[in-house]
């Protein structure tokens, strides 16, 4: 079977080919400003390789779902599934060797990052027996591997960046060939971009992006201006899977269409009838206004197969005696899950592993302990993790007072819950106020400055009150619960 893929034609004449076998071993980076033809290039690559290699597409805008009609890709709507389900789907798609489009359309940036990370994590952690080659295409990669922190939570950023780093740095041995596309090289994490050996650079206007593109292609800085003049659909190619010297190629035609193609200019005819009453009509009363409910389309048959795969494995691994056992008491099950979580925290490398990594370890241990494949979803796990990291005693955890503290904590953002409960536990026990270093460890960082900013955030929003005594020791009072810590040195 030939591995030469036709991507279009070279500007000087002749076909522009891509060696698929080489690509699977060396990865690809595509860069181009909006409107440069970047998505068109990815679609051409996907169409040409759809019958040759399994594909997984991380699609933040729903551009590639149309591939399902032509090439039988499974479209998974991330808005309809939990992170635990997406992680399992990432594993099962490799077991069943099904090409998948993960549609993240309609989710905010934080959820897009978390659910993409869960899906990539499932693909990465599949057993060795299923390390078949997979072309993993990530569009708008700067969203999932940002060079700097943005508006998303630190937890989401670290989980997504870790998954993208695994894909590009360690994915090759597991059969994962990363193809990442970005509008801005300057916004893409350097350790992710640096792992690609093949490059397709499209039209670029900003000096910093042109300079980075020229550096990656081994061009002189004065030649970087050429990126401004590239027509739409033209890219400068370099890499072992493409060409040994920089060459400009024009991407060929595609057979499928994007759902979100740009607007088409058409003659405009202003309305002749009066529209003021239509546009400025009063809004309906609040109780009469009903938001239209989104109805999900029926899932394809393959999704049903993937979703039922775990149940089939569980049924195959149990015997009649196990089926006859009495149901597990909910209290005992909760204690068993808490015990597994404590085992995970013992190996937490000082408390600096991200929750997504701990969650994967937790699910594996739950399966070993016979607690099921989906023992706890990600949201419940974050809450259980915050409680476990607080250090509260098992008997105190069942009290009404602690339940009240958890109710307050769970109204906070996910990444702040552990910090609040850590302070609440110290205040409930009248223990010394935790130091900045201890608070930073609970948050999962080495930065004591970040710990102080978190404390300031909690105080500004009236969750805690902080005060110093004459010796510079700090006390923390929990508003609404009537608890206060003993004095503690913030610098120890």
From TrEMBL:
Q: Does the keyword ATP-binding apply?
A: yes
Q: Can you provide one Gene Ontology molecular function annotated for this UniProt record?
A: ATP binding
InterPro entries from the entry?
ATPase_Atu1862_pred (IPR014588), HerA-like (IPR008571), HerA_central (IPR002789), P-loop_NTPase (IPR027417)
Q: Where is the signal peptide?
A: none
Tell me the keywords, alphabetical order.
Answer: ATP-binding, Nucleotide-binding
In terms of Gene3D superfamilies, this protein maps to: P-loop containing nucleotide triphosphate hydrolases
Q: Which CDD domains match?
A: TrwB_TraG_TraD_VirD4
Pfam families recorded for this chain? DUF87
The Helicase HerA central domain extends over 8-73
| Name of the featured protein | ATP-binding protein
Per the UniProt entry, what species is this protein from, by scientific name?
Answer: Acetobacter nitrogenifigens DSM 23921 = NBRC 105050
